[in-house]
Automatic annotation (TrEMBL), chain A:
Native source species: Paraphaeosphaeria minitans
Active-site residues per Swiss-Prot or TrEMBL entry: C282, C478
EC main group: transferase
Protein name: Adenylyltransferase and sulfurtransferase uba4
Summary of the function given for this chain in its UniProt record: Plays a central role in 2-thiolation of mcm(5)S(2)U at tRNA wobble positions of cytosolic tRNA(Lys), tRNA(Glu) and tRNA(Gln). Also essential during biosynthesis of the molybdenum cofactor. Acts by mediating the C-terminal thiocarboxylation of sulfur carriers urm1 and MOCS2A. Its N-terminus first activates urm1 and MOCS2A as acyl-adenylates (-COAMP), then the persulfide sulfur on the catalytic cysteine is transferred to urm1 and MOCS2A to form thiocarboxylation (-COSH) of their C-terminus. Plays a central role in 2-thiolation of mcm(5)S(2)U at tRNA wobble positions of cytosolic tRNA(Lys), tRNA(Glu) and tRNA(Gln). Also essential during biosynthesis of the molybdenum cofactor. Acts by mediating the C-terminal thiocarboxylation of sulfur carriers urm1 and mocs2a. Its N-terminus first activates urm1 and mocs2a as acyl-adenylates (-COAMP), then the persulfide sulfur on the catalytic cysteine is transferred to urm1 and mocs2a to form thiocarboxylation (-COSH) of their C-terminus.
InterPro entries, A to Z: MOCS3/Uba4, Rhodanese-like_dom, Rhodanese-like_dom_sf, ThiF/MoeB/HesA, ThiF_NAD_FAD-bd, Ubiquitin-activating_enz
PROSITE patterns: RHODANESE_3
Domain Rhodanese: residue ranges: 410-523
TrEMBL record, chain B:
Name the record gives this protein: Ubiquitin-related modifier 1
Lineage: Eukaryota, Fungi, Dikarya, Ascomycota, Pezizomycotina
Residues with the 1-thioglycine modification: G110
Protein task: Acts as a sulfur carrier required for 2-thiolation of mcm(5)S(2)U at tRNA wobble positions of cytosolic tRNA(Lys), tRNA(Glu) and tRNA(Gln). Serves as sulfur donor in tRNA 2-thiolation reaction by being thiocarboxylated (-COSH) at its C-terminus by the MOCS3 homolog UBA4. The sulfur is then transferred to tRNA to form 2-thiolation of mcm(5)S(2)U. Prior mcm(5) tRNA modification by the elongator complex is required for 2-thiolation. Also acts as a ubiquitin-like protein (UBL) that is covalently conjugated via an isopeptide bond to lysine residues of target proteins such as AHP1.
Cited HAMAP family: Urm1
Pathway: tRNA modification; 5-methoxycarbonylmethyl-2-thiouridine-tRNA biosynthesis
GO cellular component, one term: cytosol
Gene it is expressed from: URM1
Residues annotated as transmembrane: none
Localization terms from the record: Cytoplasm
Recorded family membership: Belongs to the URM1 family.
Length: 525, 110
């Protein structure tokens, strides 16, 4: 433990020094650049004075000193107040750095200048935010803001490409700043440490031209969309889970609420949040790195398209309006990409319609509870305490005496049912456990209550097998201790407890508790 | 459920995305025939299709993950021939031969 603390602290120090070094390098580059410019200007001036300028000759040889200084002062005045006219709109290094996109008609000089003058806020620096930020910073967006309240975890690294092994435990914002600065020091990076809240949303979003929603909860998605409508900013929203991704450009054009020509907002498309129990996180459902990377990359692409869009040439020939769409990416389907036409603004939308009820004041006051609006799944507590056993006590059951039945220990004294999906069970499991995937438990028809099979409804194999060993208590385990509770209830509904004669219960806290309290070597994933 | 075309049935394609396929035996795409006229004698619309899918194809007993208050639950988009159903009259849309109906559950991971 002590060495881990030392390692952590050293990593932190290295990271801090690296970031200081980066900053010093940037400062050095700036100072060198300025002094180079000064030398060039000086050389020009001296050249003017000494070679063939007749005025210089007069000054040097023929004009009275008093008069000369007066004239010089007058001449010098404007030069001090207005910077010298630049010969080219971009810096020399910018022509080189952005050359490959500059020569494209979609970007060109004007597009690059629009990017340089633009600012983008990226909310969430995870699987979506990392690639999105990398491409926007690489493309030369003038200012990029980063919002995140999390720290880098090892399980982030397979997909969150700005973070790295040495930066585990560093804040995601700090880690991303280091990577992005070394990618392109010309871009101004603004850290916004901490989660976006209703009270801070408007002031955080206000200074930016466009917002990227790279977050992972319904509550933050509604908050960001509402704020973008109130502030009149286009929003590029994406999400990903398992092998699928979705992308929408919302509130584009970002016209005031009530203007039906504006683009729809998140609430127009999803007026009501989904039931909290239907929301699956990447931690529970899984996520493939390139899938979420594809979606983040597409967000950067859409941002570049919105930012570099050329204004219409004339009023008679307005620029074509982009139709609102939903892009669906499905890595294991054919075709992988599919674009769906979306609705326009909803006439009764609570935020972007003429009947809008949301005000900036209400948002700023914090009276809008987005978490409550979207609902939460509290800790599941479906069983009574004598239907549950702690991981430590279960370990005793495996070694000693069952505290509930008093039976002697033996490998065959009980049945341990692991209800994780097969792919997780195959990763690691407790010796002797039987796998009954939770999907097989939930998909049992409700009609199978009390379990007696009939001809039209044969009993599932796993149920019959459990029925065969009617004397052995059943312990149910899962990853965290939620699905196991549901399974215990289901088993009792099926009559597997023989009217209470057989003990059925679950291991509190699941395999996570087993790892924390019994076997530190059991893999954590 | 007829698996060949009869008088009075129409052939359609139903697709699931965003995890909804898990409620339908992991089938992402179904080709099926539905009655052109429902039990009430009116032409089959999306509301009928949703009930039909629930009764005939959904193995998972957790119906509330697909239907809530007699309509598709919040967080599911219904797309008729690649357009939001709000553009087509929502669940009153009368299904035509060859229609493609896509149910998409919104994702939140990032």
């Amino acid at each position: 433990m002590a060495s881990e603390t030392v390692i952590g602290s050293l990593r932190q120090q290295i990271a801090t020094c690296e970031s200081q070094l980066q900053d010093l390098k940037r400062q050095l580059a700036e100072v060198e650049h300025q002094s180079q410019q000064r030398r060039t200007n000086l050389a020009l001036e001296q050249g003017v004075h000494t070679i063939d300028d007749p005025l210089a000759f007069d000054f040097s040889h023929g004009i009275h000193d008093d008069f000369k200084s007066e004239v010089l002062a007058a001449l010098a005045q404007p030069e001090e107040t207005t910077p010298p006219q630049r010969r080219w709109p971009l810096e020399a290094n910018e022509y080189k750095r952005y050359g490959r996109q500059l020569i494209m008609p979609e970007i060109g000089l004007q597009g690059q200048l629009r990017l340089k003058n633009a600012s983008v806020l990226i909310v969430g620096v995870g699987g979506l935010g990392c690639p999105a930020a990398a491409y926007l910073v690489g493309a030369g967006v003038g200012k990029v803001g980063l919002v995140d309240g999390d720290t880098v975890e090892e399980s982030n690294l397979h997909r969150q490409i700005l973070h790295s092994t040495a930066k585990v435990n560093m804040t995601k914002v700090e880690s991303a700043m280091i990577a992005l600065h070394s990618l392109n020091p010309n871009v101004e990076l603004v850290p916004h440490q901490g989660r976006l809240t209703p009270e801070t949303a408007l002031s955080t979003l206000q200074p930016y031209d466009i917002v990227l929603d790279c977050t992972d909860t319904p509550a933050s998605r509604y908050l960001i969309s509402d704020s973008c409508v109130l502030l009149g900013k286009p929003l590029i929203s994406a999400s990903a889970l398992r092998t699928d991704g979705q992308l929408m450009v919302l509130n584009n054009p970002p016209l005031p609420p009530g203007n039906t020509s504006g683009g729809p907002c998140y609430r127009c498309v999803f007026p009501k949040p989904p039931p909290a129990e239907s929301v699956v996180t990447c931690g529970d459902g899984g996520i493939l790195g390139p899938v979420v990377g594809t979606m983040g990359t597409l967000q950067a692409l859409e941002a570049i398209k919105v930012l570099t869009k050329q204004p219409s040439a004339s009023l008679n020939d307005p620029a074509p309006v982009d139709h609102p769409f939903l892009l669906i990416f499905s890595a294991y389907s054919s075709p992988m990409f599919r674009t769906i036409r979306l609705r326009t603004r909803k006439l009764k939308c609570a935020v972007c319609s003429a009947h809008a009820t949301l005000t900036p004041e209400a948002l700023n006051s914090g009276s809008m509870d987005y978490v409550q609006f979207c609902g939460t799944v509290g800790p599941i507590d479906a069983l009574s305490s004598n239907e549950r056993i702690s991981a430590e006590n279960y370990a005793k059951v495996r070694l000693n005496v069952n505290p509930f039945t008093g039976s002697e220990p033996s490998k065959d004294s009980h049945i341990l049912v692991d209800v994780r999906e097969k792919v997780q069970f195959d990763l690691c499991n407790l010796e002797g456990s039987v796998n009954v995937p939770f999907s097989a438990v939930t998909s049992l028809p409700v009609g199978a209550r009390n379990g007696r099979a009939n001809e039209s409804n044969p009993e599932a194999v796993w149920v019959s097998e459990l029925r065969q060993h009617a004397d052995k208590p059943i312990f149910v385990v899962c990853r965290r201790g939620n699905d196991s509770q549901f399974t215990v209830k289901k088993m009792k509904e099926l009559g597997l407890d023989n009217g209470g004669q057989r003990w059925i219960g679950d291991i509190r806290g699941g395999l996570l508790a087993w790892r924390d309290n019994v076997d530190r070597e059991f893999p954590e994933y | 459920m007829p698996d060949t075309q009869n008088e009075g049935t129409i052939k359609i394609t139903v697709e699931f995305s965003g995890g909804l396929e898990m409620l339908f035996s992991n089938e992402r795409k179904l080709s099926l025939y539905i009655p052109a006229i429902d039990a009430d004698g009116s032409r089959s619309n999306i509301a009928f299709l949703v009930r039909h899918l629930c009764e005939t194809f959904m193995n998972d007993p957790r119906k509330e993950l697909f239907v809530l208050d007699d309509t598709v639950r919040p967080g599911i988009l219904v797309l008729i021939n690649d357009a939001d159903w709000e553009l087509e009259g929502e669940d009153k849309y009368v299904i035509e031969e060859g229609d493609n109906i896509l149910f998409v559950s919104t994702l939140h991971g990032g």
